[in-house]
Design goal:
homodimer; Rossmann fold; 10 strands
């Protein structure tokens, strides 16, 4: 059975609608996406459907978070398929603004995540996280969600968004949700559509690297340099894969650990595969000590 | 007769209070200040009292908007006097947070006004406007005002705040209010407390410069270079005064006009007077053609 699903493209209409809900004290669950929805997104949408009275999904490929040589122009936009998936989950509203409505010509004001926005993925993608924060901030202001749902796959993004909400007193609960993986371990991502079957097999090395590090830590290995070498070796030996970084970070600060893993932490990974397009993949996993 | 005036120092308590008002559909008028209230502030407070059901004044000397060599540490803080004035106008709440509650140690996320934040006053005070925008944004998130009142004395600040609200869809009406002046023409400012009687007389040259330029434009003068020279001459000839800048700017964009004044515009002025402290004064006026 299909549910009605309202498509709203006007930001001011979206803001009016959410204001009506808020004044009626209805809770609003929100999932910001760039479309090309997969099981990862669907898990967030289903959680919102369980937890809140109104569910809004935004579909907006945000130009501000793409670098000049990145895939903004070729980013997949299967809107009809996305709409169908939203209907199946019972989403109330798809917010689907145009770039020129979202960022009018005179647009100037941005959000700056500062130090952490320049680390890890921010190093190879300058401006990326500030672009994410700016779009998410605007979406939050239009939708005023009680809860917003983010996948842990974008772990640094999730941390920066929590930081923004805390610093700016945005009254939205940020709900982190676990990474959803393909059967071979590859983390679900809209960018996986760029990969052929063989590349998808090779890209699963990120998951294997995380699992191997987790196993090594369980066996008592704790030197970050050794564990880093293990992850790098597993990733760089997979055909076509090139590691960009591997970082062991503190869960509370997302700052790098020192020589030893002494606390619960996260292993953050980024790697590249293929040419035309050169696809950038990220993954991460919990490292328990 | 005195009115009750609640003093709130906790940001979360302020946010809960304004949420209660909003759910009861009460309009909230807000005047952000750094305290040391004068007739300029009082005119904003009285306008809020007329226009909205609840009136909140914040008193917070915002460290983020001061440069390293500026007057953060000596900024006057006559709280009891400010409280008395708020009571007389009938302010409902004074929001008076501590710096460590407003910016906890791990604070990171800031607002960036970008290009315009670096011009004019932003040139000699790098980071100043981003510091203002960040504090005002947090205050708006805590208080969620229907209307916020700003004096035109800080004309560039007013423009950047309007820009922020427009860009980030903050649903607060920004109400600009005219400059209030001493009888000699000196624009009211908390920083005037740094001046002695003689300096106050000399500082009135900013107002005389604006009036003289307005008179010259009425007589048909339109060359910005000539009018600039007139303003500079009047300011720099006043004892102890040193002009920092004079800019003729377009009212819609706040960008500098070209060779001729061809449209309604604003003359923005900044100057310095005295030593220990060296006091920075700004003023501005409408230039009608």
């Amino acid at each position: 059975m299909e549910n009605a699903c309202l498509i709203v493209s006007s930001p001011s209409k979206m803001q009016r609608l959410s204001k009506q809900w808020t004044l009626k004290k209805q809770t609003i669950g929100f999932i910001p996406t760039m479309g090309c929805l997969h099981e990862g997104h669907l898990s967030l949408m289903r959680q919102a459907r369980k937890q809140t009275q109104k569910v809004v999904v935004s579909i907006f490929v945000n130009p501000l978070q793409f670098g000049r040589n990145e895939d903004f122009k070729i980013y997949p936009k299967p809107f009809e398929q996305d709409l169908q998936l939203c209907k199946e989950v019972g989403v109330d509203v798809i917010f689907h603004p145009t770039v020129s409505d979202f960022y009018p010509r005179q647009f100037q004001t941005t959000i700056d995540g500062n130090a952490l926005a320049k680390k890890y993925c921010g190093r190879s993608r300058p401006g990326h996280f500030n672009g994410v924060l700016t779009a998410v901030h605007i979406l939050f202001e239009l939708i005023r969600p009680s809860s917003a749902f983010f996948g842990e796959k974008d772990f640094q993004q999730l941390f920066l968004i929590k930081q923004m909400c805390r610093d700016l007193w945005i009254p939205t609960e940020i709900v982190p949700m676990p990474i959803i993986r393909e059967s071979n371990g590859l983390a679900m991502s809209s960018r996986n559509t760029y990969l052929n079957a063989e590349q998808k097999e090779n890209a699963a090395c990120l998951f294997h690297a995380i699992s191997s590090v987790q196993a090594a830590v369980k066996k008592g290995y704790a030197k970050t340099a050794e564990l880093h070498a293990l992850a790098a070796s597993l990733i760089n030996h997979a055909p076509g894969m090139e590691m960009e970084y591997a970082h062991f970070v503190d869960l509370k600060t997302l700052l790098p650990l020192g020589d030893n893993i002494h606390t619960s932490s996260r292993l953050l990974l980024a790697a590249h595969i293929g040419e035309n397009p050169r696809v950038r993949l990220i993954d991460n996993g919990h490292i328990a000590v």
